[in-house]
Protein backbone atom coordinates (compact mmCIF):
# COMPACT_ATOMS: atom_id res chain seq x y z
CA UNK A 1 0.00 0.00 0.00
CA UNK A 2 1.36 3.39 -0.98
CA UNK A 3 1.88 5.93 1.79
CA UNK A 4 0.49 8.78 -0.35
CA UNK A 5 -2.91 9.18 1.28
CA UNK A 6 -2.75 6.87 4.30
CA UNK A 7 -3.70 9.21 7.17
CA UNK A 8 -1.56 7.55 9.82
CA UNK A 9 1.47 8.15 7.60
CA UNK A 10 0.85 11.85 6.93
CA UNK A 11 3.47 14.00 8.63
CA UNK A 12 3.89 17.75 9.25
CA UNK A 13 6.30 17.75 6.31
CA UNK A 14 3.40 16.86 4.02
CA UNK A 15 2.05 20.38 4.59
CA UNK A 16 5.29 21.90 3.32
CA UNK A 17 4.70 23.53 -0.09
CA UNK A 18 8.34 22.83 -1.12
CA UNK A 19 8.60 25.99 -3.20
CA UNK A 20 11.76 26.30 -5.27
CA UNK A 21 11.67 29.88 -6.53
CA UNK A 22 14.02 30.22 -9.47
CA UNK A 23 14.75 32.72 -12.22
CA UNK A 24 11.71 31.34 -14.05
CA UNK A 25 9.13 28.74 -13.10
CA UNK A 26 9.72 25.55 -15.09
CA UNK A 27 7.28 24.26 -17.71
CA UNK A 28 8.21 20.63 -18.22
CA UNK A 29 7.35 18.25 -20.98
CA UNK A 30 4.51 15.80 -20.44
CA UNK A 31 6.68 12.72 -19.86
CA UNK A 32 8.09 11.41 -16.62
CA UNK A 33 11.88 11.15 -16.96
CA UNK A 34 14.81 9.97 -14.85
CA UNK A 35 17.17 12.85 -15.64
CA UNK A 36 15.07 15.77 -14.28
CA UNK A 37 13.02 16.12 -11.10
CA UNK A 38 9.58 17.08 -12.40
CA UNK A 39 6.15 16.60 -10.82
CA UNK A 40 6.14 14.48 -7.66
CA UNK A 41 2.60 13.12 -7.73
CA UNK A 42 2.87 11.29 -4.41
CA UNK A 43 3.97 14.54 -2.76
CA UNK A 44 1.12 16.36 -4.51
CA UNK A 45 -1.45 13.88 -3.22
CA UNK A 46 -0.10 14.01 0.34
CA UNK A 47 -0.01 17.81 0.34
CA UNK A 48 -3.60 18.17 -0.84
CA UNK A 49 -4.94 15.72 1.74
CA UNK A 50 -2.89 17.35 4.50
CA UNK A 51 -4.20 20.80 3.51
CA UNK A 52 -7.75 19.47 3.60
CA UNK A 53 -7.29 17.96 7.06
CA UNK A 54 -5.79 21.21 8.31
CA UNK A 55 -8.74 23.23 6.98
CA UNK A 56 -11.20 20.72 8.44
CA UNK A 57 -9.56 20.88 11.86
CA UNK A 58 -9.76 24.67 11.79
CA UNK A 59 -13.52 24.54 11.11
CA UNK A 60 -16.49 23.58 13.22
CA UNK A 61 -17.09 20.45 11.13
CA UNK A 62 -15.75 16.99 11.86
CA UNK A 63 -16.44 15.47 8.46
CA UNK A 64 -16.51 16.48 4.80
CA UNK A 65 -18.97 15.06 2.28
CA UNK A 66 -17.99 16.17 -1.21
CA UNK A 67 -19.89 16.16 -4.51
CA UNK A 68 -17.85 18.86 -6.29
CA UNK A 69 -15.55 16.95 -8.66
CA UNK A 70 -12.71 19.42 -8.04
CA UNK A 71 -12.91 18.74 -4.31
CA UNK A 72 -13.11 14.98 -4.87
CA UNK A 73 -9.97 15.13 -7.00
CA UNK A 74 -8.19 17.34 -4.46
CA UNK A 75 -8.88 14.95 -1.58
CA UNK A 76 -8.73 11.53 -3.25
CA UNK A 77 -6.79 12.11 -6.49
CA UNK A 78 -9.48 10.34 -8.50
CA UNK A 79 -10.93 11.46 -11.82
CA UNK A 80 -13.07 9.63 -14.37
CA UNK A 81 -13.49 12.06 -17.26
CA UNK A 82 -14.90 15.49 -17.98
CA UNK A 83 -18.41 14.15 -18.54
CA UNK A 84 -18.62 13.78 -14.76
CA UNK A 85 -18.37 17.53 -14.20
CA UNK A 86 -22.10 18.26 -14.37
CA UNK A 87 -23.56 14.83 -13.51
CA UNK A 88 -23.43 14.87 -9.68
CA UNK A 89 -22.82 11.13 -9.84
CA UNK A 90 -19.75 10.78 -7.58
CA UNK A 91 -19.13 11.58 -3.93
CA UNK A 92 -16.36 11.40 -1.36
CA UNK A 93 -16.35 11.25 2.46
CA UNK A 94 -13.51 12.34 4.72
CA UNK A 95 -14.19 11.44 8.37
CA UNK A 96 -11.80 12.54 11.09
CA UNK A 97 -8.43 10.89 10.56
CA UNK A 98 -9.73 8.06 8.38
CA UNK A 99 -8.79 7.61 4.72
CA UNK A 100 -11.12 9.07 2.10
CA UNK A 101 -14.09 7.04 0.93
CA UNK A 102 -14.96 7.42 -2.76
CA UNK A 103 -18.27 6.33 -4.27
CA UNK A 104 -17.76 6.15 -7.99
CA UNK A 105 -19.70 5.45 -11.13
CA UNK A 106 -20.08 1.69 -11.57
CA UNK A 107 -16.88 -0.06 -12.62
CA UNK A 108 -14.74 3.04 -11.94
CA UNK A 109 -14.63 1.89 -8.30
CA UNK A 110 -12.98 -1.36 -9.39
CA UNK A 111 -10.52 0.60 -11.50
CA UNK A 112 -9.52 2.65 -8.43
CA UNK A 113 -8.94 -0.53 -6.41
CA UNK A 114 -6.62 -1.82 -9.11
CA UNK A 115 -4.76 1.33 -10.13
CA UNK A 116 -5.04 3.94 -7.34
CA UNK A 117 -2.86 2.29 -4.73
CA UNK A 118 -2.84 5.38 -2.50
CA UNK A 119 -6.47 4.61 -1.58
CA UNK A 120 -7.65 1.84 0.73
CA UNK A 121 -9.33 -0.77 -1.49
CA UNK A 122 -12.36 -1.21 0.76
CA UNK A 123 -12.90 2.56 0.64
CA UNK A 124 -13.44 2.45 -3.15
CA UNK A 125 -17.17 1.91 -3.49
CA UNK A 126 -19.67 1.86 -6.33
CA UNK A 127 -22.61 4.17 -5.81
CA UNK A 128 -24.89 6.73 -7.37
CA UNK A 129 -27.53 9.07 -5.97
CA UNK A 130 -29.62 11.35 -8.17
CA UNK A 131 -27.60 12.34 -11.25
CA UNK A 132 -29.18 15.79 -11.20
CA UNK A 133 -32.61 14.39 -10.46
CA UNK A 134 -32.80 11.95 -13.36
CA UNK A 135 -33.02 9.17 -10.76
CA UNK A 136 -36.07 10.35 -8.79
CA UNK A 137 -35.71 10.66 -4.99
CA UNK A 138 -38.58 8.22 -4.45
CA UNK A 139 -36.35 5.44 -5.82
CA UNK A 140 -34.65 5.56 -2.42
CA UNK A 141 -30.98 5.91 -3.40
CA UNK A 142 -30.60 9.16 -1.48
CA UNK A 143 -31.86 7.51 1.72
CA UNK A 144 -29.72 4.42 1.12
CA UNK A 145 -26.47 6.32 0.84
CA UNK A 146 -27.34 8.89 3.50
CA UNK A 147 -27.80 5.99 5.92
CA UNK A 148 -24.47 4.47 4.88
CA UNK A 149 -22.70 7.81 5.23
CA UNK A 150 -24.23 8.44 8.63
CA UNK A 151 -23.06 5.02 9.79
CA UNK A 152 -19.49 5.71 8.70
CA UNK A 153 -19.57 9.06 10.48
CA UNK A 154 -20.78 7.39 13.68
CA UNK A 155 -18.12 4.70 13.38
CA UNK A 156 -15.50 7.46 13.11
CA UNK A 157 -16.79 9.07 16.32
CA UNK A 158 -17.89 12.23 14.54
CA UNK A 159 -21.68 11.96 14.94
CA UNK A 160 -21.85 14.91 17.34
CA UNK A 161 -20.03 17.27 14.95
CA UNK A 162 -21.41 19.02 11.84
CA UNK A 163 -20.88 17.56 8.38
CA UNK A 164 -19.45 19.96 5.81
CA UNK A 165 -21.13 19.45 2.43
CA UNK A 166 -19.89 21.40 -0.59
CA UNK A 167 -23.03 21.05 -2.67
CA UNK A 168 -25.61 18.37 -3.34
CA UNK A 169 -29.07 17.83 -4.75
CA UNK A 170 -31.82 19.21 -2.53
CA UNK A 171 -33.20 15.72 -1.88
CA UNK A 172 -29.76 14.59 -0.67
CA UNK A 173 -29.63 17.42 1.86
CA UNK A 174 -33.03 16.29 3.15
CA UNK A 175 -31.92 12.65 3.34
CA UNK A 176 -28.81 13.59 5.34
CA UNK A 177 -30.88 15.67 7.76
CA UNK A 178 -33.33 12.79 8.18
CA UNK A 179 -30.38 10.70 9.37
CA UNK A 180 -29.76 13.27 12.09
CA UNK A 181 -26.73 14.90 10.47
CA UNK A 182 -26.11 18.61 10.99
CA UNK A 183 -25.13 19.86 7.54
CA UNK A 184 -22.96 23.00 7.23
CA UNK A 185 -21.15 24.72 4.34
CA UNK A 186 -18.21 22.53 3.39
CA UNK A 187 -17.32 24.43 0.23
CA UNK A 188 -15.71 27.23 2.23
CA UNK A 189 -13.58 24.65 4.08
CA UNK A 190 -12.38 23.18 0.80
CA UNK A 191 -11.72 26.54 -0.84
CA UNK A 192 -9.64 27.49 2.18
CA UNK A 193 -7.59 24.31 1.76
CA UNK A 194 -7.05 24.95 -1.94
CA UNK A 195 -5.87 28.57 -1.64
CA UNK A 196 -2.14 27.84 -1.26
CA UNK A 197 -0.51 25.77 -4.00
CA UNK A 198 2.54 23.64 -3.48
CA UNK A 199 5.46 23.37 -5.90
CA UNK A 200 3.88 20.55 -7.89
CA UNK A 201 0.60 22.43 -8.37
CA UNK A 202 2.49 25.54 -9.47
CA UNK A 203 4.46 23.52 -12.02
CA UNK A 204 1.25 22.01 -13.40
CA UNK A 205 -0.34 25.46 -13.69
CA UNK A 206 2.78 26.74 -15.46
CA UNK A 207 2.71 23.80 -17.85
CA UNK A 208 -0.97 24.48 -18.61
CA UNK A 209 -0.16 28.14 -19.33
CA UNK A 210 2.74 27.11 -21.61
CA UNK A 211 0.29 25.10 -23.71
CA UNK A 212 -1.85 28.19 -24.21
CA UNK A 213 1.25 30.20 -25.18
CA UNK A 214 1.54 27.89 -28.17
CA UNK A 215 -2.14 28.12 -29.08
CA UNK A 216 -1.95 31.90 -29.15
CA UNK A 217 0.96 31.75 -31.59
CA UNK A 218 -1.24 29.58 -33.83
CA UNK A 219 -4.13 32.09 -33.51
CA UNK A 220 -1.77 34.95 -34.38
CA UNK A 221 -0.82 33.13 -37.61
CA UNK A 222 -4.37 32.05 -38.54
CA UNK A 223 -6.29 35.23 -37.72
CA UNK A 224 -7.20 36.72 -41.10
CA UNK A 225 -10.29 37.67 -43.13
CA UNK A 226 -12.44 34.68 -44.04
CA UNK A 227 -11.69 32.74 -40.85
CA UNK A 228 -14.66 32.44 -38.48
CA UNK A 229 -14.65 32.67 -34.70
CA UNK A 230 -15.70 29.03 -34.47
CA UNK A 231 -12.84 28.02 -36.81
CA UNK A 232 -10.39 29.47 -34.28
CA UNK A 233 -12.20 27.61 -31.49
CA UNK A 234 -12.01 24.31 -33.43
CA UNK A 235 -8.30 24.69 -34.22
CA UNK A 236 -7.54 25.64 -30.63
CA UNK A 237 -9.41 22.62 -29.24
CA UNK A 238 -7.58 20.29 -31.60
CA UNK A 239 -4.17 21.71 -30.74
CA UNK A 240 -4.80 21.65 -26.98
CA UNK A 241 -5.91 18.03 -26.92
CA UNK A 242 -2.93 17.07 -29.07
CA UNK A 243 -0.68 18.84 -26.55
CA UNK A 244 -2.10 16.84 -23.64
CA UNK A 245 -5.04 18.85 -22.31
CA UNK A 246 -7.52 16.76 -20.32
CA UNK A 247 -10.33 19.30 -20.68
CA UNK A 248 -10.90 22.27 -22.93
CA UNK A 249 -13.54 23.86 -20.75
CA UNK A 250 -14.36 26.78 -23.04
CA UNK A 251 -12.86 29.13 -25.58
CA UNK A 252 -14.27 32.61 -25.98
CA UNK A 253 -13.74 34.03 -29.47
CA UNK A 254 -15.11 37.55 -29.89
CA UNK A 255 -14.48 39.90 -32.77
CA UNK A 256 -15.52 43.13 -34.45
CA UNK A 257 -18.82 44.65 -33.37
CA UNK A 258 -19.35 41.78 -30.89
CA UNK A 259 -16.52 43.04 -28.64
CA UNK A 260 -18.62 45.66 -26.86
CA UNK A 261 -20.47 44.70 -24.75
CA UNK A 262 -18.49 41.54 -23.94
CA UNK A 263 -20.78 38.51 -24.64
CA UNK A 264 -18.50 35.75 -23.19
CA UNK A 265 -19.06 33.28 -26.05
CA UNK A 266 -18.24 32.56 -29.71
CA UNK A 267 -20.23 32.43 -32.96
CA UNK A 268 -19.72 31.74 -36.66
CA UNK A 269 -18.95 35.41 -37.36
CA UNK A 270 -16.42 35.96 -40.15
CA UNK A 271 -13.24 37.82 -39.23
CA UNK A 272 -12.90 41.05 -41.23
CA UNK A 273 -10.03 43.46 -41.97
CA UNK A 274 -9.46 45.89 -39.13
CA UNK A 275 -11.34 43.82 -36.55
CA UNK A 276 -10.30 43.93 -32.94
CA UNK A 277 -10.69 40.41 -31.57
CA UNK A 278 -10.07 38.86 -28.17
CA UNK A 279 -9.97 35.27 -26.98
CA UNK A 280 -10.06 33.44 -23.66
CA UNK A 281 -8.68 29.91 -23.40
CA UNK A 282 -9.90 27.84 -20.49
CA UNK A 283 -8.41 24.35 -20.37
CA UNK A 284 -6.66 22.08 -17.92
CA UNK A 285 -3.54 19.97 -17.73
CA UNK A 286 -3.79 17.17 -15.15
CA UNK A 287 -6.74 19.11 -13.74
CA UNK A 288 -4.96 22.46 -13.35
CA UNK A 289 -6.65 25.22 -15.30
CA UNK A 290 -5.93 28.24 -17.38
CA UNK A 291 -7.84 31.49 -17.77
CA UNK A 292 -5.84 33.45 -20.31
CA UNK A 293 -7.14 36.29 -22.56
CA UNK A 294 -5.33 37.90 -25.45
CA UNK A 295 -6.43 40.65 -27.87
CA UNK A 296 -5.36 41.00 -31.51
CA UNK A 297 -6.15 43.28 -34.40
CA UNK A 298 -6.49 41.91 -37.89
CA UNK A 299 -4.27 43.62 -40.45
CA UNK A 300 -4.43 47.11 -38.96
CA UNK A 301 -5.65 49.04 -35.91
CA UNK A 302 -7.33 52.41 -35.50
CA UNK A 303 -6.20 54.96 -32.90
CA UNK A 304 -9.27 54.26 -30.73
CA UNK A 305 -8.60 50.49 -30.80
CA UNK A 306 -4.99 51.04 -29.85
CA UNK A 307 -5.96 53.47 -27.08
CA UNK A 308 -8.34 50.89 -25.60
CA UNK A 309 -5.52 48.34 -25.59
CA UNK A 310 -3.08 50.74 -23.95
CA UNK A 311 -5.55 51.46 -21.14
CA UNK A 312 -6.30 47.75 -20.56
CA UNK A 313 -2.54 47.11 -20.43
CA UNK A 314 -1.96 49.94 -17.97
CA UNK A 315 -4.68 48.65 -15.66
CA UNK A 316 -3.40 45.09 -15.69
CA UNK A 317 0.20 46.20 -15.15
CA UNK A 318 -0.92 48.27 -12.17
CA UNK A 319 -2.66 45.26 -10.62
CA UNK A 320 0.31 42.94 -11.25
CA UNK A 321 2.54 45.44 -9.45
CA UNK A 322 0.26 45.19 -6.40
CA UNK A 323 0.38 41.37 -6.13
CA UNK A 324 2.69 40.43 -3.28
CA UNK A 325 2.37 38.69 0.10
CA UNK A 326 0.60 40.76 2.75
CA UNK A 327 -1.32 43.03 0.36
CA UNK A 328 -5.10 42.86 0.70
CA UNK A 329 -7.36 42.31 -2.31
CA UNK A 330 -9.12 45.67 -1.93
CA UNK A 331 -5.80 47.44 -2.63
CA UNK A 332 -5.53 45.56 -5.91
CA UNK A 333 -9.13 46.32 -6.90
CA UNK A 334 -8.57 50.01 -6.20
CA UNK A 335 -6.17 50.36 -9.14
CA UNK A 336 -8.89 49.33 -11.60
CA UNK A 337 -11.44 51.80 -13.03
CA UNK A 338 -14.92 52.01 -11.53
CA UNK A 339 -17.87 50.53 -13.38
CA UNK A 340 -19.41 53.96 -13.73
CA UNK A 341 -16.31 55.36 -15.45
CA UNK A 342 -16.78 52.70 -18.15
CA UNK A 343 -20.46 53.46 -18.65
CA UNK A 344 -21.98 50.75 -16.44
CA UNK A 345 -24.64 51.60 -13.83
CA UNK A 346 -22.92 49.72 -10.99
CA UNK A 347 -20.21 47.17 -10.17
CA UNK A 348 -22.61 44.22 -10.51
CA UNK A 349 -23.25 45.16 -14.12
CA UNK A 350 -19.50 45.25 -14.80
CA UNK A 351 -18.63 42.17 -12.74
CA UNK A 352 -15.89 40.06 -14.29
CA UNK A 353 -14.49 42.78 -16.57
CA UNK A 354 -11.90 44.15 -14.13
CA UNK A 355 -11.41 40.93 -12.23
CA UNK A 356 -9.00 38.63 -10.45
CA UNK A 357 -9.52 35.11 -9.23
CA UNK A 358 -7.61 32.21 -7.78
CA UNK A 359 -6.69 29.46 -10.22
CA UNK A 360 -6.20 25.76 -9.53
CA UNK A 361 -8.29 22.64 -10.04
CA UNK A 362 -11.20 25.03 -10.58
CA UNK A 363 -11.38 28.05 -12.83
CA UNK A 364 -12.47 30.29 -9.95
CA UNK A 365 -10.85 29.76 -6.58
CA UNK A 366 -10.25 32.09 -3.67
CA UNK A 367 -9.50 34.90 -3.33
CA UNK A 368 -11.74 36.81 -5.75
CA UNK A 369 -10.60 40.35 -6.60
CA UNK A 370 -13.32 42.73 -7.74
CA UNK A 371 -14.65 46.12 -6.78
CA UNK A 372 -18.01 44.39 -6.32
CA UNK A 373 -16.78 42.30 -3.37
CA UNK A 374 -13.21 43.18 -2.36
CA UNK A 375 -13.73 46.73 -1.13
CA UNK A 376 -15.96 45.59 1.75
CA UNK A 377 -14.54 42.07 2.19
CA UNK A 378 -10.78 42.14 1.54
CA UNK A 379 -8.62 39.04 1.83
CA UNK A 380 -4.88 38.86 2.33
CA UNK A 381 -2.69 37.72 -0.55
CA UNK A 382 -0.27 34.97 0.48
CA UNK A 383 2.77 33.26 -0.98
CA UNK A 384 1.76 30.27 -3.08
CA UNK A 385 -1.51 31.71 -4.35
CA UNK A 386 -2.02 31.71 -8.11
CA UNK A 387 -4.21 34.37 -9.74
CA UNK A 388 -5.65 35.21 -13.11
CA UNK A 389 -5.95 38.99 -13.48
CA UNK A 390 -8.09 40.36 -16.30
CA UNK A 391 -8.98 43.82 -17.58
CA UNK A 392 -11.32 45.13 -20.27
CA UNK A 393 -11.52 48.50 -21.98
CA UNK A 394 -14.17 49.50 -24.53
CA UNK A 395 -12.95 51.62 -27.44
CA UNK A 396 -14.36 55.03 -28.23
CA UNK A 397 -15.67 53.77 -31.58
CA UNK A 398 -18.55 52.17 -29.66
CA UNK A 399 -18.00 48.56 -30.69
CA UNK A 400 -14.33 47.53 -30.38
CA UNK A 401 -12.72 46.59 -27.05
CA UNK A 402 -9.49 45.22 -25.61
CA UNK A 403 -9.27 42.37 -23.12
CA UNK A 404 -6.02 41.19 -21.49
CA UNK A 405 -5.42 38.55 -18.85
CA UNK A 406 -2.26 37.45 -17.08
CA UNK A 407 -1.71 34.48 -14.78
CA UNK A 408 0.59 35.19 -11.86
CA UNK A 409 2.16 33.09 -9.10
CA UNK A 410 2.66 34.83 -5.75
CA UNK A 411 6.27 34.32 -4.67
CA UNK A 412 7.94 35.26 -1.38
CA UNK A 413 8.90 38.70 -2.73
CA UNK A 414 6.22 39.53 -5.31
CA UNK A 415 4.79 37.59 -8.21
CA UNK A 416 5.85 35.93 -11.46
CA UNK A 417 3.80 36.06 -14.66
CA UNK A 418 3.37 32.62 -16.26
CA UNK A 419 1.21 33.62 -19.27
CA UNK A 420 3.98 34.52 -21.68
CA UNK A 421 2.49 35.14 -25.14
CA UNK A 422 3.60 38.74 -25.89
CA UNK A 423 1.00 41.32 -24.89
CA UNK A 424 2.97 44.42 -23.98
CA UNK A 425 1.69 46.10 -27.16
CA UNK A 426 -1.35 45.38 -29.33
CA UNK A 427 -0.45 42.42 -31.61
CA UNK A 428 -1.41 42.99 -35.26
CA UNK A 429 -2.00 39.65 -36.98
CA UNK A 430 -1.25 39.49 -40.72
CA UNK A 431 -0.37 43.19 -40.87
CA UNK A 432 -1.28 45.00 -44.10
List keywords for this structure.
Creatine Amidinohydrolase, Chain A, domain 1, 2 domains, five-stranded mixed sheet, 16 strands, six-stranded mixed sheet, globular, alpha+beta, Creatine Amidinohydrolase, 432 residues, single chain
Describe this structure in words.
The protein has 432 residues and is of the alpha+beta class. The protein folds into two domains: 7-194, Creatine Amidinohydrolase, Chain A, domain 1 (3-Layer(aba) Sandwich); 199-429, Creatinase/methionine aminopeptidase superfamily (Creatine Amidinohydrolase, Alpha-Beta Complex), CATH 3.90.230. 30% of the residues lie in helices and 19% in strands. The protein has ten helices and 16 strands. It has helices at residues 41-57, 69-76, 108-115, 141-155, 170-178, 187-194, 199-222, 229-243, 303-322, 329-333, and strands at 63-66, 91-95, 101-104, 124-126, 163-165, 183-185, 247-255, 276-285, 288-289, 292-298, 355-358, 365-369, 386-394, 401-410, 415-417, 428-429. The strands form three sheets. Strands 4-3-2-1-5-6 form a six-stranded mixed beta sheet, sandwiched between helices. Strands 7, 8, 9, 10 and 16 form a five-stranded mixed beta sheet that branches. A hairpin with a 6-residue loop joins strand 13 and strand 14 (401-410). Helix 7 crosses helix 8 (229-243). It is globular and about 70 Å long.
